[in-house]
Amino acid sequence: MAKKPKLTHRQQRQVAANRNKRLKNGPSEEAVNSADLIEGRVVGRFGKHADVEVRLADNIDIFRCHIRRTIDSVVCGDDVLISKDQHTKATLNGVIEIVKDRRSMLSRPDYYDGVKPVAANIDQIIIVSAVLPTVSLNIIDRYLVACEHINIHPVIVMNKVELLNTEDEKQLHESLEIYRQLGYSIIFTSCKTGQGLDDLNRHLSEKTNIFVGQSGVGKSSLINQILPDADEVVGDISETSGLGQHTTTSAKLLHLPCGGDLIDSPGVREFGLWHLTPEEVTWGFIEFRQYIGGCKFRDCKHLNDPGCMIREAAEKGEISQIRLDSYHKILATMEEQRPSYIPSN
Ligand SMILES: Nc1nc2c(ncn2[C@@H]2O[C@H](COP(=O)(O)OP(=O)(O)OP(=O)(O)O)[C@@H](O)[C@H]2O)c(=O)[nH]1
Ligand SMILES: [Zn+2]
């Protein structure tokens, strides 16, 4: 039997509001009692529908659901309460009545709305880079800042590692040492030799993950390795999204053999910094945090300003000069990376 979900006051009000609205819309609509609601999780999202996975004991059902008009947004990874659709004979149709509070949220630029939610309740973001042609620490920093901003734990993956000779690999380890010291996990992988895949699986297990990274670094290849049935298209441009214009970006949540989950879609993969303020970028460099507020001038740019605590910390070797340079590079290029239809801060 399904466990009866306990509703918060806010959710009870939402159910009542939905019920009143339906009653106003005509007597044919059935009133929904909170006791009739079933807990589930959104595993697919397309057009006006969502697929909701409902687990009852050992049984897993997927309900194809409409979304109550009173609900702002439903995205992959959402925990929801659904009612069975009374109008269709098919048993596995439903209506999403309530979206539970989200513990995290990923958004992307949208032509119409500015920011559009694409996935919820993600525990971990896997930042994939390829060791060749070059490793850009600045790009890794951009992703780290984006992760820190939405408070989701990042893991750094260096893929195609079999292409490096021993000397280059040693150098790469050295240049990534600052990230280890900051507490970030780094995994070296190769889809060609299988190196690091066990390590990757261990990190993914029991968490809801997403993979991000530039085109060609091997995200699809890695997903195929950890989830052989995923049928990710390798070396192909998955979607000509043009950042949101008229695309019906469908996202899906997949269960991994290692026990974790993976949410994937082109919309999920492209997330960036364009909507952050300079202060939020500063906050995203976690080692800067302890110095924030200590600078002499309130509007300190942490560049050549007198009495800048962050610059002084870099001079004393307390923080990495490479990271500080990377920070300034991010600020300098943020405006040009912002899609023109998104208003600046
Ligand atoms: N040598 C080597 N090549 C790899 C490895 N992983 C992936 N590749 C190759 O890199 C190319 C790009 O891989 P994809 O998996 O499509 O990269 P992606 O990150 O999904 O790219 P987009 O879909 O454009 O975002 C393909 O030709 C893969 O065969 C690896 O570990 N070593
Ligand atoms: Zn400063």
From TrEMBL:
- EC top class, in one word? hydrolase
Q: Where is this region: Disordered?
A: 1-30
> Chief subcellular site?
cytoplasm
Bias-annotated ranges (Basic residues): 1-12
Q: Which GO terms describe its molecular function?
A: hydrolase activity
EC number(s): the record gives 3.6.1.-
The chain positions of domain EngC GTPase read 120-269
Compartmental location? Cytoplasm
Q: Give every CP-type G domain span.
A: 112-271
**InterPro entries referenced in this protein's UniProt entry, alphabetically:** G_CP_dom (IPR030378), NA-bd_OB-fold (IPR012340), P-loop_NTPase (IPR027417), Ribosome_biogen_GTPase_RsgA (IPR004881), RsgA_GTPase_dom (IPR010914)
- Cofactor(s) the protein requires to work: Zn(2+)
Give the UniProt keywords, A-Z.
Cytoplasm, GTP-binding, Hydrolase, Metal-binding, Nucleotide-binding, Ribosome biogenesis, RNA-binding, rRNA-binding, Zinc
Positions contributing to GTP binding:
G213, Q214, S215, G216, V217, G218, K219, S220, S221
Q: Which Gene3D superfamilies match?
A: Nucleic acid-binding proteins, P-loop containing nucleotide triphosphate hydrolases, Probable gtpase engc, domain 3
Q: Which residues bind Zn(2+)?
A: C295, C300, H302, C308
Cofactor mode of binding and number, as noted: Binds 1 zinc ion per subunit.
Q: Which CDD domains does its entry note?
A: YjeQ_EngC (cd01854)
Protein task: One of several proteins that assist in the late maturation steps of the functional core of the 30S ribosomal subunit. Helps release RbfA from mature subunits. May play a role in the assembly of ribosomal proteins into the subunit. Circularly permuted GTPase that catalyzes slow GTP hydrolysis, GTPase activity is stimulated by the 30S ribosomal subunit.
What binding partners and quaternary form does the record give?
Monomer. Associates with 30S ribosomal subunit, binds 16S rRNA.
* Similarity annotation: Belongs to the TRAFAC class YlqF/YawG GTPase family. RsgA subfamily.
Please report the name of this protein according to its UniProt entry.
Small ribosomal subunit biogenesis GTPase RsgA
Q: Which organism is it from?
A: Alteromonas aquimaris
